[in-house]
Give the backbone structure.
Amino acid sequence: MSNAFVIASDGVDPKLVPHRPLYTGAKIPGIGLGTFGSDRFSAEEIAQAVQDAIAVGYRQIDCASVYGNEHLIGLALRDVMAGGVPREELWITSKLWNDKHGEYDVIPSCEKSLKDLQLDYLDLYLVHWPFPNHHAPGVSADSRDPCAQPYIHEHFMKTWRQMEKLVERGLVRHIGTSNVTIPKLKLILRDAEIKPACNEMELHPHFQQPDLFRFVVNNGIVPIGYSPIGSPRRPNRDRTDADTVDIEDPVIVTIAQRLNVHPAVVCVKWAAQRGQVPIPFSIRREQYLSNLKCVVSDPLTDEEMQAIAGIDKNCRLIKGQVFLWQGARGWEDLWDVNGEITTR
Ligand SMILES: NC(=O)c1ccc[n+]([C@@H]2O[C@H](COP(=O)([O-])OP(=O)(O)OC[C@H]3O[C@@H](n4cnc5c(N)ncnc54)[C@H](OP(=O)(O)O)[C@@H]3O)[C@@H](O)[C@H]2O)c1
């Protein structure tokens, strides 16, 4: 008897979801579910959302060891696969945390994620941040790792060589970067034997990163957009008075009224239509279902796409202050805002 998985009656057929081709010929589903609970949602709630999101048609899940919930997401994945979802239909991403960049730490760290997620391989493994700098969970924005360093390309490439070994050993299908800049990516592309297939970066209407977006696409890398809704529930350490709110922008609100959806849905729809892969987070069924449905419904008009292109405020929300090193001037140093890698 066949064990075919039945999508919820109000769900979306995963075959209808647009997919984006990678340089390997593989295709990544054009939307995924985020799993970072912003210190607000429990691992149990998030794992339950993963299981239910797959039941409504999601096929991509964005995980990371630092989110502290892979062991429970693994139980959810085991259950959906036992229920008939073939492994090859799923796209599971995980990420190497900053304290595991050491040459002998990368492979065991990936193996730990695989064990927790109960998988034989990952579809994508990312270097979460290009710095070996980390912080204890929940610390304030002025907390610093005393051993923190700026980006040192030779060190990063030692980590990357281990990432390449993961592909060679068949533990991961693709490797990629996250939170990098154009100058860093130029060096990585120059020296990598296996090039990044995806780059995960902050992308929402008020932070469109047009230069990095173009650079990534022109180099055959698929952009994955994190915090696509402007992360309205992000931790306090990632908030400043200057931050703007995408879902309150009049352009977004007007389009939401026309479509009779929440402004969050407009952000997700714009992201998928622009060409990045959004990975919105939610544990609420009506939210993650409407985020999925919007990528298979009628597109935004050209005028709406242009209007959203016009509301970019270059407003980075995830500034990464906790990863700064002694002597750094401010969070801008993490992002090479002058077009050169900051090395001090
Ligand atoms: N690579 C990296 O360094 C990095 C960094 C940050 C995030 N990420 C990834 O990106 C994922 C998403 O980013 P994020 O969690 O920061 O923020 P986000 O997806 O921009 O925002 C998530 C919040 O938006 C609200 N929301 C979602 N769908 C909605 C809907 N349809 N209607 C109304 N509200 C809706 C929910 O708020 P309520 O809970 O209030 O309902 C939810 O908590 C993360 O979970 C993580 O997987 C990666």
Observations:
- Residues 19 and 29 are 4 Å apart (CA to CA).
- The first strand starts at residue 19 and ends at 21.
